[in-house]
Amino acid sequence: MKPTQFPAHYWIRQDDGRLRCELCPHRCRLKNGQRGRCFLRVAENDEIRLSAWGRTTGLALDPIEKKPLYHFFPSSTVLSFGTIGCNLSCSFCQNWDISAERDLSRLRVETSPELIAQKARDHGAESVAFTYNEPIIFIEYVMETARACHERGIRTVAVTAGSILPEPRRDFFSVIDAANVDLKSFREQTYSRLCGGALAPVLETLQYITRETSVWLEITTLLIPGENDSEEEIRELSRWISNRLRPEIPLHFTAFHPAHRMLQTPPTPLETLLRAREIALEEGLLYVYSGNVLHTESSTTRCSRCGEILIERKGYRTRLLNLGPSGRCLNCGQSLPGRFA
Ligand code: SF4
After folding, report:
1. What pLDDT digit, counting tens, does each position of 249-300 carry?
2. Distance from residue 141's CA to the centre of ligand 1 (Å)
3. CA nearest 57: which of 3, 125, 5, 8?
4. Mutate to test the pocket of ligand 1, among 6, 28, 39, 139 (most ligand atoms within 8 A of CB)
């Protein structure tokens, strides 16, 4: 089974005849027959094509909290899908079986953009999420699917590492309602050594989303023992979000589990997650959560003014307690940042 190919945007022809992809900071230079680092974009017949149009590894219904998005229509259902490949190559990838996959036959489910949107409606999902692997690398499929979703009143969610160039960045986020962006470290060296990427473009994406769009943004940092969990780095990362973005942006510190090329690294202790949360709160962030662990208090949303519990989460069971329909605390009236029914 050959996945449907689609003419890709965001590339130019160089003087030497090679085609340069202008989608992400790698700017791969491809001769006919060559694939980009992300695997999905391929030079064929003198153009760059996307090799996953209309095909996915599968569709699943998830709670929106699983993305994780904690302030975007809490306890709603999202229809999730992804493809294969990635423009980063993180040694610690928790989804490496699809991000590092090089077999196109894994894209076994044929799903047009319209069919995905329709399935979301049929199953009562309020949103469709582009997730599991990096959606930037299949941007054309994302944009068509997002249009089909919006025509049917379905919202769109992107779970992304944010490594994208400015022109496609504008297009991509123009069709997205909410994003969870992975901020994998606050050190260029770690991005280069462990992810084969760069920190600066991710920070640019975060600033772009915050300043130029109405996309609801949450940020996730997977804490890896000995790699990105020093107090100094966590403090700098949190301070940057608080000062350069907005203190009300939710930050999720999630637990690493040994995977892919980091099987010898131990899982993240709960104490590390809780300490990171304390540091981020000290730096002024208002909503900081722990993820991939069962810990009720650090998964709970409290009112930033009176401390009342607004949303309680136990695993993926979510209860809205003192949250009014417009996202206000029923105790003191303070508004909770986010998108609510
Ligand atoms: S999107 Fe893929 S082909 Fe394009 S520059 Fe990035 S890694 Fe290379």
Report:
1. 999 999 999 999 999 999 999 999 999 999 999 999 999 999 999 999 999 9
2. 15
3. 3
4. 28
Which DSSP helix (H) or strand (E) runs through 310? strand 309-314
Ligand 1: which residue has its CA nearest to atom 4?
A: 21
Torsion from C-alpha of 73, 78, 81, 82, nearest 10 degrees = 20
Domains of the chain (ranges; CATH) run 4-51 (no CATH), 64-299 (3.20.20.70)
Phi, psi of 340 (to 5 degrees): -130, 160
Contact of 129 with 79, CB cutoff 8 Å: yes
CA 335: distance to chain centroid? 25
Please give all residues whose beta carbon lies within 6 A of any atom in ligand 1, as ranges.
Answer: 21, 23-24, 26-28, 36-38, 41, 87, 137
* CA 28 to ligand 1 center in whole angstroms: 5
Shortest-distance Cα residue to atom 6 of ligand 1: 24
pLDDT confidence band for 341 (50 / 70 / 90):
confident
Q: Which two tokens stand for residue 81?
A: 């899908």
Predicted TM-score (pTM) of this structure? 0.97
What the block records as the tokens of 9 is 């945007």
CA atoms within 13 A on the CB side of 243: 8
> Which residue's CA lies nearest to atom 3 of ligand 1?
36
Start-to-end CA span in the chain (Å)? 42
Contacts of 35 (CB under 8 A, 6+ apart): 41, 42, 43
